[in-house]
Amino acid sequence: MMKKYLLTTLTGMACALFAAGCTPVAPNDTPDSITLSAESIQVPAEGTDAQTLTVTTPARPLIGGVPDWIAWTEGVFDRHQISYSFSVAPNTAYTTREAVITLSASALSGTFRVTQAAAARPAPGPDPDPATEDAAQIASRLGLGWNMGNQFDGFYNGSWAGALEGYPEECVWQPGTADEKEDFKATQATFDGVREAGFASVRIPISWLKMIGPAPDYTIDAAWMARIHEVVDYAHAAGLNVIINTHHDENHGADNDYQWLDIKHAVDDPALNEAIQAEIRAVWTQIATEFRDCGGWLVMESFNEINDGGWGWSEDFRTDPTRQCDILNGWNQVFVDAVRATGGKNATRWLGVPTYAANPEFAVYSRMPRDPAGKTLLAVHFYDPYEYTIGEEQYSDWGHNGAGGRKATWGDEDHVKASFAKLKADYLDKGVPVYLGEFGCSMRKRSDARAWAFFKYYLEYVVKAAKTYGIPCFLWDNGAGGTGREQHGYIHHGTGACIGSAREAVDVMARAWDNPDPDYTLQSVYDHSPKY
After folding, report:
1. Name one GO molecular function term (predicted).
2. Degrees to nearest 5, angle at CA 169 with 211 and 186
3. pLDDT tens figures, 489-499
4. Mean pLDDT estimate for the chain
C-alpha cells in the first residue's frame, strides 16, 4: 500500500491530511477568504493513493488547472466547507512535474501546488562498446545533450587581451569580474546537475590555439590538457556521454596566426593546406593519445564550424562550394586517420565530422572519411530560423500559429521536419548516424507570456522532431543568464543548478526526448502550439 504523504500547511507545520486536528472547522458565518488545509504537496515518482484537501470558502469554488495525471474528485459543499479527494499517477519521465490547481469563489482565489519527483534514471550500464553499435543505437545513447559553451572554448581576443591574445582560458568569456568568473569553473556538481536535469550527454567545446606549441611537434600545453581531462572525468563520473573537439581554432576571416584552421587561404595555397594538415595530425594524435583508454562513452569531434567567414554566403563559396568542401573533407580524413592510428579504444571509438559551417544544407558536399572501424558520425548544427533563435530580430513568435510580423518569414515546423527527414534519408537510413552538435534559442523573458510560450514550444518541437527522426541533439548553453540575443544560459556552469526560469525550458526538452507515452507525438506537440 502506498504511504500517505504529508502536506505543508498554511502555518508552515506539516500534518497528515487525514489527521482530524489539521482539518479546518466549518464556520457558521460566511468566511471572507478561501482557506486550504494545505498549500502544497510533494509527491514521489511512484505517485499516491487517495489524499484529501479541505477548503473553507464563502461559496462552492470553481476548480482549474487539474492535469490529466491527477485524478480529482469533488465532495459535498456544506456550511462553507468542501473536501476534495485526489490521487497522483506515477511519473515515468526523468524530470519533475508540477501542477498549480486554482480555486476561485466570490472574487476570491487560492492555489494548491502539486510537485512530483522525477523517475529515477537507470544507473549507467557497462561501458558502451562502439564496435557493436549501429546508427540507431548510438543515437539513442547520446540522446538529449548539453553544451558547456564559452567555457573551454573561450580565449583572450580583441583589444582587451593584450599579451594574452590567442590563449584560451576557462571562464574568460563568462560574465563578471575575475573573481566572479571563478564561480563558473566546472566542478563535479556541474555535471551531476546536468545529468539530474535530464541530459544524457555533454559536448565540451575546446579551443587549443596558443596552447599548441610551434612546428614541427605542435606540443600541447600539459596543464591545459590535464584540466580538460579532469573535466571530462567529471562528466563521465556523472554518467554522461562526452564529446570533445577543436572549436575556435578555426579562422573565420580573422587577421591572426593562432586560429590556424584557415580554409579561406588553404583553398588556394597547397603549401598552407599541407601545413594545416600536419598540425591537425599532430594535435589530434596528442588528444587521442591522452584519452586513448577512455571507454566508448567518449566521442571525438574533429572541428566545429569550419568556413571562410561567410558562413556559406561568400562569393568564393557560392561560386564553387566543392573547392572549400573538398578541403574540409580532406581535413576530416586526416583527423580520422590520426585518431585511429593511436590504437587502444580509439580503434573503434565513435568520431564526429562536421559539414561545412556545420550547416545541414551543405551536407550534400560532405564526403564521409574512409574509416576502417566504420564508426563516424556526421555533425551539423541547427539554429533555424536564425532571425528567431539568435539573430538581431528576436521575434516573439514561431511556428504555424505565430502572427505575421511577429515571426520570421521561413523556418516553421515544416522546415524542421524537412531538414531532419533529409538527414535521415541521406545518412541515417544508409547507416551513418547524425547528431545536432548545437541547437538552441536565445532566452526569452518569462514575464512576456506570449514570447515565453513560443520559446518553450520551439524547443519542444525541435527536440521532439530530432527524437522522431533519430537525431541526438545538444542544447547550446553559453552560461549567459539574461534574456535576449546571445543569452543562452540554462544551467550554471559552476554549480549545475538551473538558472532562473530555465528549468521550465529544460523540463520541456527532457520531456520531448524521454516521454514514452505513445500518444505524445510530434503531431500532438504541433497541435498544442500556443495560440494568441
Report:
1. beta-glucosidase activity
2. 125
3. 999 999 999 99
4. 93
